[in-house]
Amino acid sequence: MSSKVGKDIAINGDGAVALAWKQMNPDVCAAYPITPQTIIVEDFAKYVANGEVSTEFVDVESEHSALTLCTTSCAAGARTFTATASQGLAYMWEMLPITASMRTPVMMAVANRTVSGPININNDHGDVMSARDTSWISLFSENVQEAYDMSILGPKIAENPDVQLPVLVNLDGFILTHAIERMTPLESSVVKEFVGPFKPVHPLLDVDHPTTHNLMDGPLFYFPHKYQMVIAMEKALGVAQDAFDEFAEISGRRYHLVEEYMCDDADTIAVVLGSSFGTMKEAVDRLRAEGMKVGVCMPRVYRPWPAEQLAKIMKGKKNVLVMDRHLSVGSYGPMFPEVCAAATLNDKMPHMFNFVYGLGGADTQVSDFMGVYKQVLEGKADKVNFVGVHE
After folding, report:
1. What is the three-class DSSP state of 385?
2. Residue 368: exposure state from Cβ atoms within 10 A (0-12, 13-18, ≥19)
């Protein structure tokens, strides 16, 4: 194990993503700067300028152009990466389903930031949730180490022959992107061997086997082609778990489709995404010390949605708190209906509660998360609750 991991370093989340990219040495990177993602492409551009990678780095005039270039580059046969956040991801939206439908496994890091307006540069999950139905695989990170690890695992999953779909690697803006933490990288040779060489499927530049991409698709073919993507997403769950298991062998760090903390004997659990998982674990520890049987879990893989794994965790629970860091105004938080749907796979439904928190970077402390558990256990919670907001 010691020969496969490097020395511990202090690095922020954006820098950790750029380091993972450097170790994989992609063929092409096209990007446009936007806070809090900019450090990723700034750091990676330095690696390019210093000759530490052989990547063709393209400065484009917009995020829409960035993803358009990345999609066509990947379709031509090049391993291609990009990164964005918030309005940048929104500006890419037109291209997101096209990239997926062309079955180009582009890797994109998303420094999760609230979507305007009003204008706000802080963290919530409004950007990635707005992209959840565009057929991209979506992975979440709790800390800087995981942002690095998911950046290596993302291409491994996306490029699998049974998947061939693009991937989003999410890290919370500022909370992870700019926070300096201790991290253990892998040796570059180990990363390269783990990810392997890029093996494009039907590349445009394979002149011996001519092909074309993204033609007009009438009613006879559009639905069947979409269904092929459904099958690929279903396969991605198994591919992801296999990749996690293989990664554990080289890193000592084991990941799961859904991460659990103190859920086995809990009667009340919460479901949360991103860096808040760590804060929730501290809340669980403190409530356990008070004698409350509570737990928390995080879908590591948000797309494809791990319904069966969540159902297994929720089986026999009295209460489930779904923590959404985004709000679909006029409805619930976006994760709440999906967790409820997963719960229907069991014979008996727990009591389900939705808590919307942290929008626009609103601070949510350990005491706030302890409060949401107590609110439910004391019978004071509504079906939909807004943490820290009062009428």
Report:
1. strand
2. middle
Give the confidence band of 178 by pLDDT, cuts at 50, 70, 90: very high
Give yes or no for a contact between 127 and 90, defined as CB atoms under 8 angstroms apart.
yes
pLDDT in tens, 53-62: 999 999 999 9
Rounded CA-CA distance 92/66 in Å is 8
Determine the residue type at 107: M
Residues 120-137 pLDDT 10s:
999 999 999 999 999 999
> End-to-end CA distance of the chain, in Å?
55
Do residues 372 and 385 make contact, with C-beta atoms less than 8 angstroms apart?
A: yes
* Cβ-contact 336, 342 below 8 angstroms: no
- DSSP letter for each residue of 298-326: EESEEES--HHHHHHHHTT-SEEEEEESS
d(CA 71, CA 61): 16
Asked if 296 and 281 count as a contact pair (C-beta separation under 8 A), the reply is: yes
Alpha-carbon span 132 to 337, nearest angstrom: 14
Which H or E element spans position 383? none
Picking from 384, 383, 318, 381, the residue whose alpha carbon sits closest to that of residue 346 is 318
CB within 8 Å of 164: residues ≥ 6 apart: 103, 104, 105, 158, 201, 232
CA-to-CA distance for 271 and 264, rounded, in angstroms? Answer: 14
Q: Which structure tokens are listed for 192?
A: 């390269």
Strand pairing report for 137-140 and 258-261: unpaired
pTM flag (> 0.85): yes
At position 252, the amino acid (one-letter code) is G
Q: How many CB atoms lie within 10 A of CB 287?
A: 21
